[in-house]
Each structure stands twice: as structure tokens, then as C-alpha cells.
């Protein structure tokens, strides 16, 4: 798999996982948000250089990543029970009218099949009020193609949620970081300017 990094990170930045010559850590903004983000990352995503949850955690002090599905490591569902916790997912149920905005937003990180499976296997997720984003434009640049029209990278989804909850101005630098990442990954693949 071409986006998987060597286990020893040989020739890779330990922060962004990109080749050292293309490291984008210096481009990562620091965003203070009112909303906390809890990313539940599928264990098969943890070592992929194209995993954008890593970028979100670098940029947002209020972002924490938890692993789901690692062999022998049960997932602690208690993290989903704090008051004010919502789910960012297309199929999530909207909150009742008058519900205050989320204090914490759960974001599922994985390919579309992995995210859907997490949503199905953790009934606690389906009990959370939800925030759904509009689908990205068909011509949106991608590192990976999604079979679902609402599919987007984790950092895109978090930026979209921040735009809805806290304003587009707050989210702008996170969107820009995603564009820089696409450029650097394409450069690493020798395909700068191509669409994946």
C-alpha cells in the first residue's frame, strides 16, 4: 500500500509522516476552537501517510485521537457519554430543535467502509445528536476517492464542522493545510498537479 509509512519512519517526518524533504509541519496552523474534537481512528489508518486525522491533531490542541479495532485493545465507549457530545456523520440524527451546539464532536476516521462499520458496531454513536455536512463539490481535489458522495478526508470534515459551528474564517487555514498536504503527497508520488 503506497500510503503506508515504514514502521521505523525511515526518511519520514515523525509529525506529518511525509518524506522529510516534503515535511509540512512548518505549515501547520495552531487553531484554538471552542469545540473539542474526538477522532475515532480505525487502527488500519494509523500508519498511512495520507491519514489526515494526524494533521488535525497537530493543528488543534482540542483534538484527541483514539484507536478503534486494534487486536486485543477493546474500545472504551465511556468516551462517548459526556454531555454535549455530538457525532459528525452523514447518517447521524439531527438534534432536537433548541439543542445547544456541541461541546465535543466525534469524528470517525477511516475509509468509507471502515467508518460505516464503526457507526454500525458502536450503538452509542447512533444515540448521539448529529451534525451532517453538505457533500463536497464533485471537482474537489482528493488523495483518495470515496464511493459515497458525502465522503471526505477527516481534516476536511473537521474544517467543515468548524466553519459551521465557529465560522469560515476560523476554518480557512485548516482547508489551506489540506491543499498543501495534497500537493506534497502528489509531489512524493511524482504526480504534482495530477488528480488521484
Molecular structure report:
- There is one protein chain.
- The protein has 5 helices and 5 strands.
- By secondary structure, it is of the alpha/beta class.
- A 5-stranded parallel beta sheet has the order 2-1-4-3-5.
- Helix 4 (154-166) packs antiparallel against helix 5 (168-188).
The total domain count is 1
Q: Identify low-pLDDT runs.
A: none
Query: What's the arrangement of strands in the largest beta sheet?
Result: 2-1-4-3-5
The total beta strand count reads 5
Report on the biggest sheet: 5 strands, parallel
H/E series: EHEEEHHEHH
The N- to C-terminal Cα distance equals 14 Å
Helix content range:
25-40%
Q: Strand content of the residues, in percent?
A: 5-15%
Question: Structural class given helices, strands, pairing?
Answer: alpha/beta
The DSSP helix count reads: 5
Q: How would you briefly describe this protein structure?
A:
The chain has 196 residues and is of the alpha/beta class. It has 5 helices and 5 strands; from the N terminus they run E-H-E-E-E-H-H-E-H-H.
Amino acid at each position: 500500500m503506497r500510503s503506508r509509512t515504514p514502521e521505523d519512519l525511515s526518511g519520514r517526518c515523525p509529525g506529518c509522516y511525509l518524506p522529510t524533504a516534503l515535511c509540512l509541519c512548518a505549515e501547520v496552523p495552531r487553531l484554538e476552537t471552542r469545540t473539542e474534537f474526538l477522532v475515532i481512528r480505525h487502527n488500519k489508518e494509523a500508519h498511512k501517510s495520507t491519514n489526515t486525522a494526524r494533521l488535525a491533531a497537530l493543528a488543534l490542541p482540542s483534538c484527541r485521537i483514539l484507536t478503534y479495532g486494534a487486536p486485543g485493545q477493546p474500545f472504551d465507549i465511556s468516551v462517548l457519554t459526556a454531555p454535549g457530545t455530538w457525532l459528525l456523520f452523514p447518517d447521524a440524527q439531527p438534534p432536537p430543535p433548541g439543542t445547544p451546539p456541541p461541546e465535543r464532536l466525534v469524528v470517525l476516521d477511516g475509509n468509507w467502509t471502515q467508518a460505516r462499520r464503526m457507526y454500525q458496531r458502536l450503538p452509542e454513536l447512533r444515540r448521539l445528536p448529529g451534525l451532517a455536512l453538505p457533500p463536497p463539490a464533485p471537482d474537489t481535489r482528493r488523495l483518495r476517492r470515496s464511493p459515497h458522495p458525502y465522503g471526505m478526508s477527516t481534516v476536511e470534515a473537521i474544517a467543515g464542522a468548524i466553519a459551521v459551528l465557529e465560522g469560515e474564517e476560523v476554518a480557512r487555514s485548516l482547508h489551506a493545510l489540506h491543499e498543501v498536504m495534497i500537493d506534497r503527497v502528489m509531489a512524493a508520488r511524482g504526480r504534482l498537479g495530477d488528480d488521484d
